[in-house]
Amino acid sequence: MDHNLNPTELVLRPQRALDGEDMIRLFKVKEKQRELAENANGGAPVKKQSAGELRLHKDICELNLPKSCTITFPNGKDDLMNFEVSIRPDDGYYLGGTFLFSFQVSPIYPHEAPKVKCKTKVYHPNIDLEGNVCLNILREDWKPVLNINTIIYGLYHLFTEPNYEDPLNHDAAAVLRDNPKIFETNVRRAMAGGYVGQNFFPRCM
Amino acid sequence: MTNSTVQPSRSRDLDKLLLRPGNLVGPTFEPGLGLREDLKEYVKVLVVGAGGLGCELLKDLALSGFRELEVIDMDRIEVSNLNRQFLFRLEDVGKPKAEVAAKRVMERVSGVNIVPHFGRIEDKELDFYSKFSIIALGLDSIEARSYINAVACSFLEYDSDDNPQEETVKPMVDGGTEGFKGHARVIMPGTTPCFECTIWLFPPQVKFPLCTLAETPRTAAHCIEYAHLIKWDEVHSGKAFDPDDPEHMKWVYNEAVKRAELFGIPGVTYSLTQGVVKNIIPAIASTNAIISAACTLETLKIASGCSKTLSNYLTLPVKPRNFDGLRELCVAFLKYNGAEGLHTKVTEFVKDKDCLVCGPGVLVELETSVTLEKFISLLEEHPKLQLLKASISHRGKNLYMQAPPVLEEMTRSNLSLALFDLMGKISKDVVHATGTIIESDKKTSCLRKLLVVFKGADGVADMDTAGGA
Ligand SMILES: [Zn+2]
């Protein structure tokens, strides 16, 4: 900030509307000020808070999660844009397991949906072995009126109601469709830590 | 050509605007040679982006009497740019766009001074942006526009009646093109809507369901997105895909070709791959030229007052298409047999008075001794706010979070500290508060921008905005 200027130059000019007016006089004044201020301290570097960060702040404050879901911020309290959510389904095939999801939120959130990955390797028709998740509101059905809470509920429902019609893990989907009993056995085996077919699943119970 | 014959012809058209009075000029417009000279000397324009639109903008601004230009771009020149980014030659491939663009325009337009910056817009200090009179945007990403908009709006201050203080207004002229469509707009923070007020104008990116990509691909784009979103992770576990790395792009292209062959889908090309992955529609040189001309004229009008500025959004698509509320003009531009004509349409949008980026915010005056806890309770009583249980953030730092419990715990110790100290002893700054308001017995969550001023902290803070902070 500079403290060398005489501010009267600015104050004495009459107030003008900004639309359709020449700003050159203003630029002249500013340019002269700037030359004067050149030697003054430029001020501390400031990180610009994106509109996405602000909106996310609101989303995080109004989270209303079921007991089975918890949120953590691995980079500390000032990085809300990257967080993790763990889900412990209290019903269905996945009862007793704990599944960790990472969220990456864009600076233009909510214009764009967060990027969500499942960090726990899971035997699931709608989650592939790399952690990609097929959930409509994360992709084709995302709308800016939705929020983080909606996404977490959506993820929770994937565990209580896995859906063989939107398969990302083709084999798991086929087993769920054709033989739910075997599917259940496979899920239990994977969650306890073991092989389903060629794939090893670390324990997550 | 000698210099003496170049000079008069170069400003001939400009002089018709700057040397003569007119009916559409601003009320304080003073035509004359002095104005032309002032444009050269006092108006600094930053061009953001040195791609298709940026090249045009630099050339147009240089030829329109602006002498002090700077340009910033993080990209290097690729062969595929050469058809429309006309400042670049084959031997420039691999060099930074900003540097080559600046050099070429300076070679061709005598007297103009262009400072190139090869790097990311986020890596420049706010101070860098404060020195420009006008910022012209030639970008292809929403993120970058949103960032520059936030920077420009951060200089804005309002007077006690919530009118923008003109010396803090950083005008922006934003151009954008996609194929035959384009827009030019003027953003006067505080007066016109800012980029964030109307972000809904940008149609959301098309995102295919992942399971479609994995199971039932039907189009070339499906195959490309499969390679980009699913196959990449499968093969490169943990390594992030970088859309600006040509090796990564080639890998995705090759995988997409394999996928397309497997399903018998035609149409995967390298340029389509780039387009799908980076979400860009192939640029057309003439669209860039038209949009750049419109943006340059607006820049000249803002600076000189030689005519009323565009109010505030001009579009030119080839096909009529309806976004929410945006009546686009219909241009039969280049149909199969060539040009049939060109129409442009101007739409005036209004700003969102509660915009978190360009809005004035609610003034809260405090003593320097007020603790964060006391501040939060003051917000409950504040007549314009009545914000209950507020969580507070300042410049990206969360000072106090009411929820979730993990953040509440991490920020609780701040409650007993003085807000003035927590904000780094700045006499006046913006903070954001999320809390609950009760409207006709209904609780709603609400995020507000607050302008906190500490009484008696620093006498000069109000006047030195133009110097940059
Ligand atoms: Zn705004």
Automatic annotation (TrEMBL), chain A:
It holds the Pfam family UQ_con. Keywords: ATP-binding, Nucleotide-binding, Transferase, Ubl conjugation pathway. Pathway: Protein modification; protein neddylation. The keyword ATP-binding applies. The active site is at C134. GO terms for molecular function: ATP binding; NEDD8 transferase activity. InterPro entries: UBC, UBQ-conjugating_AS, UBQ-conjugating_enzyme/RWD. Belongs to the ubiquitin-conjugating enzyme family. Accepts the ubiquitin-like protein NEDD8/RUB1 from the ECR1-AXR1 E1 complex and catalyzes its covalent attachment to other proteins. This is UBC core domain-containing protein.
TrEMBL record, chain B:
Gene3D superfamilies: NAD(P)-binding Rossmann-like Domain, Ubiquitin activating enzymes (Uba3). Chain: B, domain 2, Ubiquitin-like 2 activating enzyme e1b. Chain: B, domain 3. The keyword Iron does not apply. GO terms for cellular component: cytoplasm; nucleus. The active site is at C211 (glycyl thioester intermediate). It catalyses: ATP + [NEDD8 protein] + [E1 NEDD8-activating enzyme]-L-cysteine = AMP + diphosphate + [E1 NEDD8-activating enzyme]-S-[NEDD8 protein]-yl-L-cysteine. Belongs to the ubiquitin-activating E1 family. UBA3 subfamily. This is NEDD8-activating enzyme E1 catalytic subunit.
